[in-house]
Amino acid sequence: MKTKSYPVGQGNHNNVHFIIRGANYVFKLCAFPDTEKIYIMSSSCKDKDSFDVEEKLIRFKANFSQRWNYELIADANNLLNLRFDSTKDLLESDYYKKS
User: Fold this and answer.
1) Which candidate, 14, 52, 54, 96, has a CA 20 to 30 Å from the CA of 77?
2) Order of strands across the sheet with 71-73?
């Protein structure tokens, strides 16, 4: 299964929610059209030991930049570790504020 990214709905804070889905992983993201940035909300990965974080990050960033015109705000250290239950939690986080 190839990696797919697609929007899943509008949020309450002038944002759009996206999914990145691959054979062994799912990422939920939150994009803000006004700033053209997209943030990781949460992720699940069945086999973290075989997940090439650097390679996936490069592919994810290219996909969102080229296909959706969003800058993915993430790095290899936090790609699999970010988890926010709501957009409000994301907006109040250091991850969002420092971007």
Assistant:
1) 14
2) 4-10, 16-21, 25-32, 37-45, 71-73
